[in-house]
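Per your request, structure below.
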């Protein structure tokens, strides 16, 4: 399980790689990757943390890309629907996906002190949840797992 968020990495590379992966995916699937959608994703990639819709709207407003909440919400809805961005329920915020366009089941580790978020992956049909689903004849299609604790920086 690899995680991103609490460890140092080449941040500029994850921005360009994330945008490139989404552009390719949208082109292949014939999806409209509008300037507002692109900039919304770029903001999330650049900030490298979970942001609320109104925080994103402030960036968009300052850049002349829209000032009404539906502008940000529509962009986020598109990005979440296609797996480019995840909603962090506990924070009511959004974070760029570290594996855009890939089918995966993310697990989010959220620091209760600084609200930083790391994304990791897991297999939903494994472990106790998978066992319970199989026993009930249930097919898991989507899960959201958010773990709260302390990031390495806040433990010090």
């Amino acid at each position: 399980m690899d995680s991103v968020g609490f460890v140092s990495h080449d941040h500029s590379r994850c921005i360009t790689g994330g945008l490139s992966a989404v552009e390719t995916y949208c082109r292949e699937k014939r999806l409209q990757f509008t300037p507002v959608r692109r900039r919304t994703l770029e903001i999330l990639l650049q900030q490298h943390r979970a942001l609320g819709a109104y925080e994103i709207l402030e960036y968009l407003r300052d850049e002349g890309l829209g000032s009404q909440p539906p502008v940000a919400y529509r962009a986020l809805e598109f990005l979440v629907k296609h797996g480019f961005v995840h909603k962090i329920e506990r924070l009511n915020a959004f974070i760029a996906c570290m594996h855009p366009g890939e089918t995966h089941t993310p697990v989010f580790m959220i620091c209760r002190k600084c609200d930083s978020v790391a994304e990791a992956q897991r297999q939903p049909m494994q472990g106790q949840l998978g066992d319970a689903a199989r026993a009930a004849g249930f097919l898991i299609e989507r899960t959201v797992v958010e773990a709260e604790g302390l990031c390495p920086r806040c433990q010090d």
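Residues 11-155 form a domain with the Arc Repressor Mutant, subunit A fold (CATH 1.10.10.10).

Regards,
D.
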